[in-house]
Amino acid sequence: MPSTTETISLTQALTSAANRAGRCRDCEPFYCDACGWEADVAFTADVVAFRDTTDGPEVLLITRKWAPFAGHLALPGGYVDPADATTVTNPADEVAVSAVAAAREAAEETRLNIIRDQLRHVGRYDATNRDPRGRRISNAFAIQFAANTTVAAGDDAATAEWVPLETALNQPMAFDHHHILTDAVRLLRRGVLDS
Ligand SMILES: [Zn+2]
Fold first, then answer.
1. Are 60 and 112 contacting, i.e. CB atoms less than 8 angstroms apart?
2. Where's the Nudix hydrolase domain (predicted)?
3. What is the distance in A from the centroid of ligand 1 to the CA of 16?
4. Which domains does the chain have, with CATH numbers?
5. Is 160 within 8 Å of 109 (Cβ atoms)?
6. pLDDT tens digits for 67-87?
7. CA end-to-end span of the chain, whole Å?
8. Of 62-66, 72-76, 138-142, 155-159, which gets the smallest average pLDDT?
């Protein structure tokens, strides 16, 4: 097992996830509610979705259904799945594979239909203490939607709602999602997200 501070590639993490030796039959690739197993190192992807209304910009936030941070506001997102790497030209391209995961997870949690080419990379978040489960390396993406875009909570989200940006910036959020949101707002202000 790699130490939690060791560098590991996305490909290595996905290969490790696909090897289920020693785990129970219910184990997901990176965690297991049945036996409590958690991967030491895993890659995740998060989405900062904005929409521009007459009252100003809004950001899409979910309420987490599960630990850690159950009941907390968060950006939609989740684990990069081994299957996500099979849909891109270069499976070792961490950002490209993470964009697939980001679009898939946002759709699962909020019913948002994301065109992957419209995602803009916000950054790579890999501070060793950002997730209490272990080393979780996240690539975050931002995207802008039309004012009439609707969402609905699904999968791991208890709620999914458009929140006025100024309200969201003043809320505590799970993990380092407030930091990610702040970084994405810079792209929004620069007009980088206009499609
Ligand atoms: Zn298990």
1. yes
2. 40-189
3. 15
4. 43-189 (3.90.79.10)
5. yes
6. 899 999 999 999 999 999 999
7. 43
8. 155-159
Total residue count of the chain as it appears in this document: 195
CA of 39 to the centre of ligand 1 (A): 11
Q: Tally Cβ neighbours within 10 Å of residue 67.
A: 10
- Tell how far the Cα of 69 is from the centroid of ligand 1, in angstroms: 21
The tokens describing 28, both together, are 């997901």
The whole-model pTM stands at 0.91
The pLDDT of 141-165, averaged and rounded, is 94
What is the 156 CA–ligand 1 centroid distance (Å)?
18
For residue range 159-183, what is the model confidence (pLDDT) as tens digits? 999 999 999 999 999 999 999 999 9
User: What residues does 164 pair with on adjacent strands?
Assistant: 58
Question: Within 13 Å, how many C-alpha atoms sit on residue 81's CB side?
Answer: 13
The distance of Cα 184 from the centroid of its chain, to the nearest Å, equals 13
Task: Give the distance from CA 49 to its chain's centroid.
Answer: 11
Chain centroid to CA 146: how far?
A: 21
